[in-house]
DNA sequence: ACCTGAACACCGTTCAAGT
DNA sequence: ACCTGAACACCGTTCAAGT
């Protein structure tokens, strides 16, 4: 985390060694790709190997494996939230909601670790709760717009929108063919349009 | 697995020691309750402790932890399949399909290990594939009846029905409130009624 | 200040020694 | 024939020793 090494004009200056910066970044990059491919059970040893550092170095930069996972997944959630914000400007409110759900589903398909976290609602991982809230807020806006446009009859909160993302992809996975997710998504969206829950 | 100990009238007679029978049963019972509560990550040591046997004894009766899990979960799936068969006789085809889905969801809520397996579609566990097929066949009949009754417009296979079970419960879990599953189930069933997929 | 690798407690699994 | 507990390889995590 860096260390106070000097005091200039009364300001504390934090100096971090160059190799430390490089190693931290290498660990994050390696973790991102290993976790995406193998999920949460990927071993720290594999990540350390891929990053070209010793296992101990991973724990110098991140207090635990969970912390490392959180750092990586936080980036993914932020990206998704940014996409969602862009979609708010779209002309068709129902289409925007549908596209957001598809984006979240494709992220689950692309990233095994995100998929597992999205499924178990493991807010256990610290530091992820806030990211999730931001995502829920944008999702709530997308849902509100869709309801106001009259295309959606069902009551639906931001949390529910996240639930739909997970429901569609996990449902498809349970059939043994994850690529079938558009079927489940279309059922859910059709439900949103017609059900009065 | 027992051992040939005698030959009477030319028939081979397999004799199993009484303590072996008792221990095997104790392991299965212990595993059922531990797995239901703690999920697939529950340790063999905990199961052995609860059963009152040494860890090694578990592996004398089951080749691996996965085999033990399969034995326990196979029972759960069989029970669910039996419930489904009973529902085939019901007067309202859509209601029967709905009730079956609810039963599958409640099983996920009650049993953590089943929930995790239903979600990941891990047919990896050997011996479970056949049980699943039987469940899919009954589910297919329930779906067919619902379509023929005219209440359901969407195309839906037995595999899809299983997917709906998982979708509804996992969706609810992702909202942080598993008890919200009826909301997701009603969306999906409403989708089945109206979507033409 | 940071990196490394040996060490620890825990897991699933194996197996020699007991009965 | 079966049970037991010690042993092994693997995991996440810690820490003394190096630079």
Q: Layout of SSEs?
A:
The structure is a homodimer of 197-residue chains.
Chain A: E1 3-8, E2 11-15, H1 18-38, H2 44-51, H3 55-61, H4 65-87, H5 93-110, H6 112-120, H7 128-148, H8 158-174, H9 181-194
Antiparallel strand pairs in A: 1-2
Chain A binds a DNA duplex (19 and 19 nucleotides) through α1 and α3.
Overview of this structure, please?
The structure is a homodimer of 197-residue chains. The first copy, chain A, is 70% helix and 6% strand. The first copy, chain A, is mostly helical and 197 residues long. A two-stranded antiparallel sheet of chain A has the order 1-2. In chain A, helix 1 crosses helix 2. The longest helix of chain A is centred in the middle third of the chain and has 23 residues, at 65-87. The first copy, chain A, is globular and about 60 Å long. The mean pLDDT of chain A is 92. The A-B interface holds A 118-121, 123, 154, 159-160, 162-168, 170-176, 180, 183-184, 186-195, 197 and B 118-121, 123, 154, 159-160, 162-168, 170-176, 180, 183-184, 186-195, 197. Chain A binds a DNA duplex (19 and 19 nucleotides) through residues 2-3, 5, 15-17, 19-20, 23, 43-45, 53-57, 59-60, 64-65.
Name its key features:
homodimer, two-stranded antiparallel ribbon, mainly alpha, 6% strand, DNA-binding, 197 residues
Query: Given the helix and strand composition of chain A, which structural class is it?
Result: mainly alpha
Q: Regarding quaternary structure, how should these chains be classified?
A: homodimer
Biggest interface goes to: A-B, 36 and 36 residues
Order of helices and strands of chain A: EEHHHHHHHHH
Report the C-alpha radius of gyration of chain A, rounded.
20 Å
Most strands sheet of chain A = 2 strands, antiparallel
Strand order of the main beta sheet of chain A, please? 1-2
Shape of chain A: globular
The amount of helix of chain A comes to: over 70%
Uncertain segments of chain A are none
Strand content of chain A: 5-15%
């Amino acid at each position: 985390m860096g260390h106070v090494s000097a005091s200039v004009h009364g300001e504390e200056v934090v100096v971090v060694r160059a190799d430390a910066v490089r190693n931290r970044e290498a660990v994050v990059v390696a973790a991102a790709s290993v976790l995406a491919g193998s999920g949460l059970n990927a071993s720290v040893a594999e990540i350390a190997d891929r990053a070209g550092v010793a296992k101990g170095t991973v724990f110098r930069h991140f207090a635990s494996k969970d912390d490392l996972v959180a750092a990586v997944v936080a980036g993914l959630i932020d990206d998704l939230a940014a996409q969602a914000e862009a979609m708010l400007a779209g002309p068709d409110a129902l289409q925007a909601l549908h596209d957001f759900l598809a984006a979240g589903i494709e992220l689950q398909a692309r990233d095994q670790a995100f998929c597992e976290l999205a499924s178990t609602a493991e807010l256990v991982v610290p530091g992820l709760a806030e990211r999730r809230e931001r995502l829920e807020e944008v999702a709530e806006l997308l849902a509100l717009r869709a309801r106001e446009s009259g295309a959606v009859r069902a009551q639906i909160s931001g949390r529910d929108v996240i639930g739909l993302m997970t429901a569609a992809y996990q449902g498809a996975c349970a059939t043994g063919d994850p690529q079938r997710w558009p079927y489940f998504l279309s059922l859910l969206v059709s439900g949103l349009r017609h059900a009065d829950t």
